[in-house]
Amino acid sequence: MLHTGLLPNGNFEQGPKPSDLKGTVIKGKYSLPKWVKKGLVEYISGGPQPGGFFFAVPRGVHAIRLGNEASVHQYVRVKKGSYYSLTFSATRTCALDEVLGVSASNDSADLPIQTLYSSNGGDTYAWAFKATSQIVKVAFHNPGKEEDPECGPLLDAIAIKEMAPLPKPIGNMVKNGDFEIGPHVFKNFSTGVLLLPHAHDYITPLPGWIIESLKPVKYIDSTYFFVPSRSFAVELVGGRESAIAQIIRTVQDQFYLLTFKIGDAKNGCNGPMLVEAFAAKDTVKVNYESKGKGGFTSASLKFKAISDRTRLTFWSSYYHNTVDFSHMCGFLPNGNFEEAPKPSNMKKTVIVGKHSLTEWDFNGLVEYISGGPQPGGFYFNVPRGVHAISTIRTCAQEQSIRVAASGTTVDLPIQTLFSGDGGDTYAWAFKATSQNVKITLKNPGIEEDPACGPLLDAIAIKEILLPHYIGGVLIPSHPHDSVSSLPGWIIESVRPVKFIDSKHFYVPSGSSAIELVGGRESVIAQIIYTKPNVSYLLTFKVGDAKNNCPSSMEVEAFAGKENVKVHFNSEAKGGFTTASLKFHAISDRTRITFWSAFYHTRLDYGYMCGPVLDDVKVVHVMY
């Protein structure tokens, strides 16, 4: 029976025979000891690599890289019916959006590999499954089809742990409230274990808890981090984007007291911190001034249950770092919702009647909201007018808005992360397939609280700059450059980029530019036509947006096999530097890619900001 720890050759230190290697590529299906491989799998030694890359293997010397559609698997003996957690180290190796597929016991998931939470390539993830038989196939797979077939996630240090059943709570209604039951943590080197979002609390590396929204939380241990009590805790590394929650049994109309501790992990994360806790209709904000040396404070929240189930939710309020061709332009009819329903068509804030909202038809529960204080202690901002309908999220739950037009649909996560006043603006593009198109915005979620849901305001067609208010326009991730709010460009990864204008921001040249607000998580790219073995010169400008974001900034640019790091010291007063990268084309198409190497937050409310990218050019050069 398998015990907790590394899988057989889970650290890949038992390598293939020299005769089974062609350079770094493993030949033969069974050449990697204890594993079965399929497709292009490379055996990697940590350190400098061809093309100027550096692969870190912090838990040993060797790792494997999975090429397009490549996989490795092995069979392990387990207890049927038990729950298990896999812990593994994974890192992306190219400036592309990379995904690692993991599967076991007829369950599977595609995990985005970002390498965002540690600087040494040591990001560690956990994923859980339930054993449906005594022998299960554990597999890791690269499902992507990368432009460069040599790109793919780096995989190392794979361990397994049987999850102990949760004990019955005694004197505490919260299950696993001390976080002592969790995934395997490596003892020889730990950067914490990232627990990716999951909507359920039963098959999970952290039993009893739900990880909400887009970002993971980090499971940390007292050997390598400061933990307020006992051996383990959770670090809220994703700001408002990673909410941790649990649903507990309560008795309606009874009062309860929620207590908890917050602190810093003694990992160089300095500055003012703020954790928000929610229970039923009540909330509390807990401040903590971190000096990066460890320490904590205790907090409490008294709440009244409104049903037999109550959701407890926690998030960090701040973020911390170690063109179409249509003729229509402007607001849609009543796109700002300032033409209100008649009073007879209102039941408090709820709109009554399908056609009661001027110029709009609706289905389901739609509320007409006036900006300002709301019942339950909330405050809704409507910065572009007075009224909105209930895409700012309004509760401490994961929310999204579904946008559909002309046969195209997308679900956009609503985070309110990039401005301090609730005024986040998004852009989405579609291609008209007829002269009349139906534009629909929908809340696809089934919220625990039916009154929750995204706040929607100021709907325009074709990207516009509102004259009385502009905070930039967020352009979400999209993998294609044809139907795009920013024609010609691909927005890669999980975070958006921000389209900014020279009236409200500093722009190096012309009227518009892009602000890289998401660090390594928001990658902007374009694929250009090139001739193999011909040299080219990429030039661009990097600066700051003059938006209260002083910091040492760095933009990384990639083209072919070459890359360059461009430093710019922002004093938040505007300004820019010009940079260049000479590259040699290796095919008839070359991807040029940009990201911000660091994460930045504004001095006012901790909202995310970043370097400005502008004036990108590529020309043919002679060596």
From TrEMBL:
Domain DUF642, first and last residues per copy: 5-161, 173-320, 330-389, 391-462, 484-618
Cross-referenced InterPro entries: DGR2-like_dom, Galactose-bd-like_sf, Pectin_Meth_Modulator
Keywords linked to the UniProt accession: Cell wall, Glycoprotein, Secreted, Signal
Alphabetized SUPFAM superfamilies for the sequence: Galactose-binding domain-like
Record localization: Secreted, Cell wall
Region (Disordered) location: 1-20
Pfam families named in the record: DUF642 (PF04862)
Protein known as: DUF642 domain-containing protein
Source taxonomy: Eukaryota, Viridiplantae, Streptophyta, Embryophyta, Tracheophyta
